[in-house]
């Protein structure tokens, strides 16, 4: 097991990944090349690695928060390749998180704000539940976990909600006048299966506790 990180040592934060969940279904070789082969190349550097993984490594049938000792059962190509990437890490920290969002890049918050400005109503899935996690809070928690032993850590925001509930909170917090129509995963018809419930919690001693996802949303919107 990796010892706590020493400030003068070398370290790789490995956040690069194939994150197109649906695209991975039609290009499994490409997803494997990035998520598994890319991780193997990072590990070959011979220094400790922080590998950022995903709640999607679980199948969502548990109906209570997943902890580190739960057995992963990935449903999609993306999830399978991320799990295989985890298994490439021999020296370091595997940080699983959930439904990441921030003030830059492409993510659910920025997509909802764009759609909310363009439309009077958006259709959002209501039968998938997770814990939206603000990347700023994840970064702070990752720094904390480096002072702890390596291995698998679940670092995700407090609270839980569906995508539809999250969308409503985004519009309310941002003052956007847009209705949310709840639909099912089946109605959405995406190629890749998603876990219906993928809330993460840590069972490990000393695990950092992230703020509630609503606090993360407020902080994120303040930076946009």
Structure description:
The protein has eight helices and ten strands. The protein has a single domain (12-223), classed as 3-Layer(aba) Sandwich (Rossmann fold). It is globular. Helix 2 (28-43) packs parallel to helix 3 (77-86) and helix 4 packs across helix 6 (163-174). The longest helix is centred in the N-terminal third of the chain and has 16 residues, at 28-43. The termini are far apart. The strands form four sheets. A four-stranded parallel sheet has the order 1-2-3-8, with helices on both faces. Strands 4-7 form a two-stranded parallel sheet. With 224 residues, it is of the alpha/beta class. Helix content is 36%, strand content 17%.
Strand order of the largest sheet: 1-2-3-8
Structural class: alpha/beta
What is the CATH superfamily classification? Answer: NAD(P)-binding Rossmann-like Domain
Give me the CATH fold name.
Rossmann fold
Write the layout of secondary structure elements.
Layout: E1 12-14, H1 21-26, H2 28-43, E2 49-54, H3 77-86, E3 92-97, E4 100-101, H4 108-118, E5 121-125, E6 129-130, E7 133-134, H5 135-145, E8 151-154, E9 161-162, H6 163-174, E10 179-183, H7 185-188, H8 213-223
Parallel strand pairs: 1-2, 2-3, 3-8, 4-7, 5-10
Antiparallel strand pairs: 6-9
């Amino acid at each position: 097991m990796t010892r706590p990180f020493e400030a003068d040592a070398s370290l790789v934060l490995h956040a690069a990944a194939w994150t197109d969940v649906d695209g991975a279904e039609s290009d499994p070789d490409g997803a494997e090349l990035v998520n598994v082969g890319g991780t193997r190349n990072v590990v070959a550097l011979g220094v400790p690695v922080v590998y950022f993984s995903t709640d999607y490594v679980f199948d969502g049938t548990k109906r209570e928060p997943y902890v580190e000792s739960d057995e992963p059962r990935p449903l999609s190509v993306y999830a399978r390749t991320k799990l295989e990437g985890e298994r490439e890490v021999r020296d370091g920290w595997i940080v699983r998180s959930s439904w990441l969002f921030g003030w830059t890049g492409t993510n659910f918050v920025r997509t909802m704000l764009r759609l909310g400005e363009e439309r009077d109503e958006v259709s959002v899935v209501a039968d998938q539940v997770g814990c939206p996690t603000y990347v700023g809070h994840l970064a702070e928690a990752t720094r904390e976990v480096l002072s702890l032993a390596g291995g698998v850590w679940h670092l995700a925001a407090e609270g839980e909600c569906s995508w539809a509930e999250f969308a409503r909170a985004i519009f309310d917090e941002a003052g956007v006048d847009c209705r949310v129509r709840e639909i099912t995963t089946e109605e959405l018809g995406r190629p890749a299966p998603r876990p219906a419930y993928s809330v993460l919690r840590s069972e490990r001693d000393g695990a950092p506790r992230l703020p509630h996802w609503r606090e993360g949303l407020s902080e994120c919107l303040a930076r946009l």
